[in-house]
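Q: My collaborator sent me two sequences in one message, no labels, and asked for predicted structures for both. Can we handle them in order? The first one she listed is below.
A: Yes, handling them in the order given. First sequence, followed by its structure tokens:
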Amino acid sequence: MEVRRSVLDILEDLEEESEEFMDEVMREMGSLIDQINASSPMMRHGLPQSCIVQRPAHQVYRDDKYFTVVVDLPYVEPGRVNVKIHGRNLKLKALSNRRYMEREICLQLSITLPEDVEVEESNARLSDGVLVIRLRRKGPTEIKID
């Protein structure tokens, strides 16, 4: 005589198999992400190995005296942001307080400005997850003619 299983028993078995399968998929994904991060050139630029790199939303505005760069940095504290300017290139790296799949979220941005800037007369402020960088534009240099 054949014993029939109830639908609930079958569903319970399927649920258990699904959980085991998802655990295995997550382990494999974590391993693949570790391999990708280990071979990534981002490591040479000071980002953590177990970092998920994202490009933050940003906008650049220009007026007569300044470039204003507005960058969306949610869940980032001021001490975890690094901004470097070299000539016309602005590079930003930030570490979020949030994590995804047990990895840090690293925000990275590189912008080439249309003109050089005066770094000494520039400033930045991070408030409510929005970084505002004001960069003084280098004006044209006049040469006095005798």
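Q: And the one she listed second?
A: Here it is, processed independently of the first:
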Amino acid sequence: MSMTRRRRGQIGEAAAAALLEGEGYRILERNYRCPLGEIDIIAAQDKEIVFIEVRTRSSRTFGTPQESVDGRKRMRLRRLAAYYLGSRGLAGWSCRFDVVAVWLDRQERVSGMEIIKGAF
């Protein structure tokens, strides 16, 4: 991954975490890693565990941020969520998957964000 792409991702994730906290989410984990991969943000809101994928874009050339969460990515996130819930003894808890779309301008400043609740 290029440094520019990594930097954009870090900017997007930091902005998304701040937005989520402002919307009443309680951040439990950021960049949770396990043998199956990584989840950007895990939070709690209204007695639900929320698994959040953050997608950051600086142009619409390849579509919207949320459109980049394809079927393969959704399947991976479901497996990661099951692993997380099982490893924490939370298997019976209600959960959902949200996507935070982050737009950056040419100076890599956040120009817009959207939370897509229950994205899949």
